[in-house]
Amino acid sequence: MYRSEKTSPKTYSGFLMTTKSDALLLFVSLFLFISLFLYGCGNGEPESNDDRPFVVTTTNLIRDVVENVGGEDVRFVSLMGPGVDPHVYRATPRDFRRMEQSDLVLYNGLYLEGRLSEILDRLGDQSRAVTGSIPREKLIDATDFGGAYDPHVWFDAELWTYVVMDVRDALTRLLPEGEEDFFRRAEEYKKELMELHEYAKQRIQSIPEERRIMITAHDAFQYFGRAYGIEVRGLQGLSTATEFGIQDVTRMVSLIIERNIPAIFIETGVSTRAIESVLTGVRDRGYQVQLGGSLFSDSMGAPGTPEGTYAGMFRHNVETIVQALSEELQPSL
Ligand SMILES: [Zn+2]
Q1: Which residues are 149's β-sheet partners?
Q2: DSSP secondary structure string, 277-316?
Q3: d(CA 251, CA 278)
Q4: Identical fold, 54-200 and 207-325
Q5: Which end of the chain has fewer surrounding CB within 10 Å, N or C?
Q6: pLDDT at site 48
Q7: Which residues in the chain land under pLDDT 50?
Q8: Cα 217 to averaged position of ligand 1 atoms, centre (Å)
Q9: pLDDT, tens digit (0-9, with 9 covering 90-100), for 5-64
Q10: CATH 3.90.190.20 fits 207-325, yes or no
Q11: pLDDT of residue 137
């Protein structure tokens, strides 16, 4: 979001002048002003006359939970927007300002936000990892990733309900009088997540068994694979900060040909270089593999689009996977 202190004086001068360009400027300024006013309500920088608790989230996935549970009772903003990669994200001066002004900073934890961990630690009780109350035995071990757990828990919708409860409790501590509303909204949201969970299970199981394998650049979908019964292979490991090598590509190319895998996937916010190498490798060996489309991995889509919510993002991924893997791979020539 961009604040536009600078546009206000121009708006005023636009009123006084009557040339075409000034009229256009006036129109644009008014549009900006109105948009900012509407957008600024409940979802942005704290207004000085707004005394609702101000919650900052790192990813927009967590913001979606705050929005669903907190409703109009809290103000919230996420530091990372659509297509932003949390593994390598560094805080901007504006992020520091927002975190300072906030009452609570909610982050994923499990080293997802690797480069923010120092700042988040420094915030002490003012920050909270929303994955903290997920039973450890439900987490996927990832000892090759800093001796920790796989952080991509949002791809198991049932597991994500723990995050909903965690956010609900954190908001209740922040605003005890909101307890009843937070609990009610959390229950509704959990119900929606469980419906998504069942839907995903059914849709993924509709893919012929031998083709139930998804190949992506980075390994964001292990929870998804475990929950919905699809094998998942990532080229880059759990973090996009890990490089992939020529051997990884060769191994993946052989796997695609041996298993007759029809499609591989790119991810929003992740470089397509890795997946393109695999694509070229398969074609060089005389086979065809399709790009199955783009999956949202570590962020949701833009606000106002169907993929701009957790549920919409999740459905997009499921439908993209089902559609792409339902076609067969044919040897070319
Ligand atoms: Zn990731």
Answers
A1: 141
A2: HHHHHHHHTTB--EEEEEE--SS---TTSGGGSHHHHHHH
A3: 9
A4: yes
A5: C
A6: 65
A7: 1-19, 35-43, 332-333
A8: 10
A9: 333 333 333 333 344 555 555 555 655 555 444 444 444 555 568 899 999 999 999 999
A10: no
A11: 95
Distance from residue 211's CA to the centre of ligand 1 (Å):
24
| SS3 at position 303 | coil
Query: What residue ranges do the domains of the chain occupy?
Result: 7-40, 54-200, 207-325
* Tokens found for residue 149: 């757990």
- CB-count exposure of residue 49 (10 Å: 0-12, 13-18, 19+): exposed
CATH entry, 54-200, from 3.40.50.360, 3.30.1360.170, 3.20.20.140, 3.40.50.1980: 3.40.50.1980
Q: Find the 203 Cα to ligand 1 centroid distance in Å.
A: 23
C-alpha of residue 231 to centroid of ligand 1, in Å = 17
pLDDT at 42: 45
Distance (Å) from CA 220 to ligand 1 centroid: 5
pTM of the predicted protein model: 0.82
CA of 40 to the centre of ligand 1 (A): 29
Residue 240: predicted pLDDT: 77
**Sequence letter at residue 262:** P
Helix (H/G/I), strand (E/B), else coil: 156: coil
